[in-house]
């Protein structure tokens, strides 16, 4: 039954208290995921960061900090979120790095005020930083010429990727930085997870060779980041990644870079999805069941209508991403029926059961009726952080479950929250 996934907590009572939909986080599972990465980097010269764009909830960040995980932020406000969660700031600590392809909003101000390490993904950013008066260490994000995200639309390296600088451009940017009083102390790249564990491991091997070729041109480099990209098995048939070969690669990589340069080079990784993907589920309520009949246009379907939409979890609509779905308290031996799980938004794309070609892909589920609770699993990565106010719907609350005790860590947004920033002010 679905109950076992949440330590036996009665979701009906919880749903009655906070309303549906809501995000439910498993604190014990998050700590276990962190421990697996800490074991992976448990050697001198290795360090893990958390790519906090995956899930920036304050409770998640503070748990990362307590376990010694550093932060990779991608906006000024993410840096400020890390500060609220207790991360130290200042020129004497590298615990928070700000990686971005464009300075926008308060990013430059945050770099100056909090002295976080800026990781620059574009040549012009060096001059922009200098013009703003910055002098100090910087990181450069390089495009190694290869890489693949979890779907085709997420290329993280290669000619079709917007991220990072081509190696020749990066060298010119580094020379400009030196002239402006900035020193490149960290080299960074991210080549993504790829569709298989084998491709991820091969990409990492290739990335290590790429950095070994680059390092001699950066004499002040103290660290190299191999990025994130640890795969997560969303589909049941996909096996979990074996971390030990990757850990072996990291230790070899750190020894190789240190021997090559004659100094202790820190090697970093920055998982996001791997830490948090299985940690949260969207809990949603069935509101109705509708059926269409087959005709010349196609087969008929059973539509299970729920109150969560792509404003709450956009990955299936955006990427055709697969998420496990279960019915709360359904008997283990219940018969299954192929259904389409659909949300409340005024969009045909507001469907959670699509394939990566955006076609309906009915999912076998136990019989349901209005009022039943459904869990959309593995929603911890890019779930809440990519949610929106589309259709003027308030963002769903987040509930933290720790050893059987639930805590509200963000409330449901109200109409007043939505219109608070609206104005009509002469400029």
The chain-level structural class is: alpha/beta
| CATH structural architecture of the largest domain | Alpha-Beta Barrel
Determine the N-to-C terminus distance.
58 Å
Assembly category: single chain
Number of helical runs?
12
Low-confidence stretches: 1-5
CATH fold topology of the largest domain: TIM Barrel
Number of domains: 2
Rg for CA atoms:
23 Å
Number of strands: 17
Mean pLDDT: 92
Q: Main beta sheet, described?
A: 9 strands, mixed
CATH top-level class of the largest domain: Alpha Beta
* CATH superfamily heading of the largest domain: Alanine racemase
**What is the helical fraction, as a range of percent?**
25-40%
* Global shape: globular
Strand content: 15-25%
Record the SSE blueprint.
Blueprint: H1 11-18, E1 22-26, H2 27-40, E2 46-51, H3 58-66, E3 70-73, H4 76-84, E4 96-100, H5 107-114, E5 117-120, H6 123-131, E6 136-141, H7 167-179, E7 182-188, H8 197-214, E8 223-225, H9 243-261, E9 266-269, H10 273-276, E10 280-291, E11 302-306, H11 315-319, E12 325-327, E13 337-342, E14 363-365, E15 373-376, E16 398-402, E17 405-410, H12 415-419
Parallel strand pairs: 1-16, 2-3, 2-9, 3-4, 4-5, 5-6, 6-7, 7-8, 8-9, 11-13
Antiparallel strand pairs: 1-10, 10-11, 10-15, 12-15, 13-14, 16-17
Tell me about this structure.
By secondary structure, the protein is an alpha/beta fold. Helix 4 (76-84) packs across helix 5 (107-114), helix 6 packs parallel to helix 7 and helix 8 runs parallel beside helix 9. The protein has helices at 11-18, 27-40, 58-66, 76-84, 107-114, 123-131, 167-179, 197-214, 243-261, 273-276, 315-319, 415-419; strands at 22-26, 46-51, 70-73, 96-100, 117-120, 136-141, 182-188, 223-225, 266-269, 280-291, 302-306, 325-327, 337-342, 363-365, 373-376, 398-402, 405-410. Strand 8, helix 9 and strand 9 (266-269) form a beta-alpha-beta unit. The protein has 2 domains: 2-23 and 277-419, Lyase, Ornithine Decarboxylase, Chain A, domain 1; 27-274, Alanine racemase (TIM Barrel), CATH 3.20.20.10. Strands 1, 10, 11, 12, 13, 14, 15, 16 and 17 form a 9-stranded mixed sheet that branches.
